[in-house]
Amino acid sequence: LGITQPAVSQYLKQLRQIMDDQLFVRTKQELVPTELSVELLKQIETILDQCEEVVNYRSGAFDPENEDRKFTAAFLMFDTVKMYSVFAKDIMNKYPRIRVNLLHLTLDRALPAIDDRKLDLYIGEIPEGIPKYYAVELVNESSYMILCSDKSKLYKKDSITKTEFINTPSIKIPLDVGFSTMDAKLAKLGVLQQDLFCLPDVKTALDYVSKTDYIFMIDPKMVLEFMDEGNFKLLKPEFELPPNKLHQLWHIRHNNDSAHKWLRTKVREALTQ
Asked: Residue 229 has what pLDDT?
């Protein structure tokens, strides 16, 4: 802290009086924070982040063509193909001095990484109730369609019925073991498939669908530039499916950083094309 031990003790004494709490309790080896200290931690971190933002504020606009900058972004596994296109083609190829390291993370793993300054941006579907020290922006909302190949009896059709969707073997890309958030949404609408085969990513799913009669529920934007239209077909569902929402999420400490604002703008432009 850069101050003497008696000064620390004096400041802690004053804080205890102000907060009407011990704040830290001494054990044999260390001082342990009280429950109130733990509750205050996030608020204090936010205040310190805002102070740091003021001190490090960059008034000039970020110049990606002449400034070196590294970012780390994360997204859900099933978004791999599209996200690679966004960052590798739309950003890093156009701006060689910019590097974006890409990770696969679920939201519950991404949030601590954002808190610890190990992750700059997360892209995926964000539920309600995210703490206020995160900023969330909806960048794209689209509809799912059903992908099949010429190996499927559905290939000659332009749409798919609810009964066909439920009873046709389907590909699923799980983010965890067991019943997923998407499964819950489909079950609520009464359209959870009966026969689900799990695969790790979109490319593997496309390859499997191309050789079998399996179908695959997918956002067309995720696969159009990577699939052979002669072998695949997108079927419009004749029933309600949950929308596919993509958000970008970051810590509010980066709200006014010109480089981070530039990155978020580029992601938004790429995902809304």
From this structure: 56
